[in-house]
Design a protein that fits this description.
This protein is an alpha+beta fold and about 450 residues long. Helix content is about 25%, strand content about 30%. The chain has helices at about 15-55, 60-75, 85-95, 110-115, 120-125, 200-205, 210-220, 430-445, and strands at about 95-100, 145-150, 155-160, 165-170, 175-180, 185-195, 235-245, 250-265, 265-275, 280-285, 305, 325-330, 335, 340-350, 355-360, 365-375, 380-385, 390, 400-410, 410-415, 455. Helix 6 crosses helix 7.
Length: about 450
């Protein structure tokens, strides 16, 4: 059999072609080798990691949990995409704003006129919504803010009643959409106390109390203490009351929640309670009403120029004539209140009494108010306690502005400053349990001097 033979033939390609081909094959083989080594190295490392993952650890489960928690806590806060500015907000930012303060005698037309706006603008706003009726009751000192677009057209009107309440009228087509905005302040409890040296007002101001809170304090204890005559140096007060904050800034004060007043060594305490019907009153911690059937004095913070004296020497006639009431000196125009609920049985003028008012309270009691500058009630009219019935004057036989006040029981004159006043109704038995539950913490906080100084309210 004939054996096959392999005959080597000579490569007929040029020398440089053969050289390049040989070098390319060598480079290719080298690269392939490197890639193989890299793959082998990777597989080995993966195997090592797998073994390490399965290898037992000395750390306890608690350690692992703590480390995990640490990792969680160290994560940066989730980034929040900035809110997209709405078309309305962009429009508001582009508005040109003018602000007008309401003056005495202003109405919507006069205020709009100061902004060069006509009757048509007034009509469109005033008829835009039932809420626009509020604009008819604007008060001096309140503000209207006008927002104009680049063409000078009124796009938005803001009526600011207070820091907490406003009305916004935004242009919508040929009319305006109205919105009532009521902000809710943060309400905190604050404690203050003071000792009187000369007057409650000065002591209250020294304790950092606004005038309104001082007046409220006097009204709470006004049935037991005559602040015109009974006050003595050394009298002491303490109170727990509300302070209202908006964006961290104190904007106003609220109600007195609990208070104590020591006068001539006798201490009176009061706490505010709101019953199931939503009516709020002040009571003693035992549930007796602080409110008496009559005020001890029918006007605020004056001095007594002449007391109850059956043998007084009359300042004009210089003869001994009984003084069957108390004279409270006060500035002309000072409000005079009805001492209690009742019916006006006389309202007139005489040469001796000047302008006067007489009120009947039930069957037993009558109060008289003489030398008034103006009378605010008419005969036959029913009045409620602390209703303004007139103002202090100097009419009739009077040497200066003052109120002459008389108090009669069954037709007999009694000293208004010392007569025992009938008590109003105590807390209802149906409210007793809730009263004790809600007022006891306030009394305890008052007795503890309000420490810490401020507490967040459970419900504003």
């Amino acid at each position: 059999m004939k054996q096959a033979s392999y005959i080597k033939t000579e490569d007929s390609r040029p020398f440089w072609t053969r050289l390049v081909s040989r070098q390319w094959r060598q480079t290719h083989l080298f690269a392939a080798g490197i890639a193989s080594l890299f793959m082998v190295f990777t597989l080995v490392m993966l195997a090592i990691d797998d073994v390490e993952a399965k290898r037992p650890t000395n750390k306890s489960i608690k350690d692992i949990d703590l480390n995990f928690q640490q990792i969680i806590e160290e994560q940066p806060a989730e980034s929040v995409a900035p809110e997209q500015t709405t078309e309305v907000e962009e429009q508001q930012l582009s508005l040109r704003w003018h602000e007008q303060t309401i003056r005495n005698g202003d109405n919507l037309t006069t205020v709009f006129g100061r902004e060069k706006l006509g009757a048509g603008d007034v009509h469109r706003v005033a008829t835009s919504s039932p809420l626009a009726e509020k604009l008819a009751r604007m008060m001096p000192g309140q503000k209207l803010a006008f927002g104009f677009d680049p063409d000078g057209e009124l796009v938005e009107l803001n009526y600011h009643i207070s820091r907490l309440e406003s009305y916004r009228f935004s242009k919508a087509g040929n009319s305006y959409a109205a919105r009532h905005i009521q902000l809710r302040p943060e309400v905190l409890r604050a404690y203050r106390e003071g000792t009187i040296e000369s007057s409650l007002f000065l002591a209250g101001e020294a304790a950092g109390l606004p005038h309104r809170v001082i007046m409220d304090l006097a009204n709470i204890f006004g049935w037991d203490v005559d602040f015109a005559l009974d006050i003595r140096a050394g009298d002491h007060f303490s109170l727990l009351f509300e302070e209202k904050f908006l964006d961290g800034e104190k904007i106003s004060t609220g109600n007195i929640l609990a208070a104590s007043f020591t006068n001539r060594g006798e201490t009176f305490r009061a706490v505010r309670y709101t019953d199931a019907k939503g009516h709020a009153h002040y009571y003693t911690p035992e549930g007796l009403s602080m409110r008496k059937a009559f005020l001890r004095a029918p006007l605020d913070f004056t001095r007594v120029s002449s007391g109850f004296n059956p043998k007084r020497l009359h300042p004009i006639f210089k003869t001994k004539r009984p003084h069957r009431g108390v004279d409270y000196a006060a500035s002309r125009g000072t409000p005079v209140y009805a001492a209690g609920d009742g019916k006006v049985i006389q309202s007139g003028y005489t040469k001796a009494n000047g302008n006067f008012v007489v009120i009947q309270h039930g069957q037993q009691y009558v109060t008289k108010y003489l030398h008034l500058h103006r009378k605010k009630v008419k005969r036959g009219q029913r009045v409620s306690q602390r209703q303004v019935i007139g103002t202090v004057g100097s009419t009739g036989y009077s040497t200066g502005p003052h109120l002459h006040y008389e108090f009669l029981v069954n037709g007999v004159h009694r000293n208004p400053r010392t007569v025992k006043l009938p008590q109003a109704k105590p807390i209802a038995e149906s409210e007793r349990a809730n009263f004790n539950l809600t007022t006891a913490p306030l009394i305890a906080l008052l007795d503890n001097k309000g420490k810490p100084e401020q507490y967040a309210l459970a419900s504003p």
